[in-house]
Amino acid sequence: MSKVIRMLSLSAVIVAGLTTLARSQNRPAAALPAGEKAVKSAFDSSDPLANWTITGDVTIDVAKSRQGKGCSLKIGPGGKALLKLRDRDESGRIDVWIYDDGTTPEDVKARRVGPRWGLAQSDGKVLAAGILYANYLGGDEGYT
């Protein structure tokens, strides 16, 4: 009987510990330091690219919206759009919605780097995600 009680106690402690761990992963964002504002970029304003550094083929696409609201940033081949969020590196939260129009290169098995997006620190270090093409990947079938 005492063995069963000990197991139940241990299980309760583990479950309580996991609950605390899971809750700690979703803490609300800390307040911004005095004088700083959160950066929000919407592409349906009067000058949507005012705070962006643009290189190459970058336009506003009024035909593509997110859930029926606003416009989207369209970056063509070789284009680059950079939005500086802060002067110093800090943690924070960024929400981005990526739309891939499904365009594929003529030879989907040829090795190349496709579209990519991510974050850059002030020292040049980058965290990026993107699409890769290689002969061992099924580029004509999807992201495999």
Automatic annotation (TrEMBL):
- Recall the taxonomic lineage recorded for the source organism: unclassified sequences, metagenomes, ecological metagenomes
Name the UniProt record assigns to this protein:
Uncharacterized protein
